[in-house]
């Protein structure tokens, strides 16, 4: 069974940068899409960024475009989320997700992803 483990969350001040990591294990294969979602209490899980199996295609939510950057190391089943110029509204639990479904575009809905990490808390506060 595929398992995802996130790390790197923490408390930072507005304007700071923070990097999140996600490691996949359990034989995920090679042709899969990985993404990051975030969720706050009482709200739906929100798409943040996604990347195709070979890293050739990425997509970002408008709220983070130009500030957040997703990257991956396919041979090591690793995906990263580099977050810059953090704002208080970025505060959330961040989840790593994986899907083996083939698609022409990066899936944007949570129910399109098959595997999820446990989440890591990111808090942006002065």
Describe the structure.
- The structure is a single chain.
- With 126 residues, the protein is an all-beta fold.
- It has strands at 3-7, 10-12, 18-25, 33-39, 46-51, 58-60, 68-73, 78-83, 92-99, 115-116, 120-124.
- The protein is globular.
- The relative contact order is 0.32.
- The mean pLDDT is 94.
Unreliable spans: none
Evaluate the radius of gyration: 14 Å
Overall SS class: mainly beta
Question: In DSSP terms, counting alpha (H) and pi (I) runs of 4 or more, how many helices?
Answer: 0
**Count of individual beta strands:** 11
Report the β-strand fraction as a percent range: over 45%
Mean pLDDT: 94
Question: What does the overall shape look like?
Answer: globular
Largest sheet: 7 strands, mixed
Helix content range: under 10%
- SSE pattern: EEEEEEEEEEE
Q: End-to-end distance, in Å?
A: 40 Å
Helices and strands in order:
Blueprint lengths: L2 E5 L2 E3 L5 E8 L7 E7 L6 E6 L6 E3 L7 E6 L4 E6 L8 E8 L15 E2 L3 E5 L2
Features:
126 residues, mainly beta, seven-stranded mixed beta sheet, four-stranded antiparallel beta sheet, 0% helix
Summarize the structure.
By secondary structure, the chain is an all-beta fold. The chain is built from no helices and eleven strands.
């Amino acid at each position: 069974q595929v398992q995802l483990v996130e790390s790197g969350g923490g408390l930072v001040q507005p304007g700071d940068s923070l990097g999140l990591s996600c490691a996949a294990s359990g034989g995920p294969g090679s042709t899969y899409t990985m993404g990051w979602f975030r969720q706050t209490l009482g709200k739906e899980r929100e798409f943040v960024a996604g990347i195709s199996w070979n890293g050739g295609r990425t997509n970002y939510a408008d709220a983070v475009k130009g500030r957040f950057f997703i990257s991956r190391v396919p041979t090591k089943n690793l995906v990263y989320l580099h977050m810059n110029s953090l704002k208080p509204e970025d505060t959330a639990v961040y989840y790593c997700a994986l899907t083996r479904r083939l698609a022409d575009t990066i899936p944007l809905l949570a129910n399109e992803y098959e595997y999820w990490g446990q989440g890591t808390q990111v808090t942006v506060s002065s």
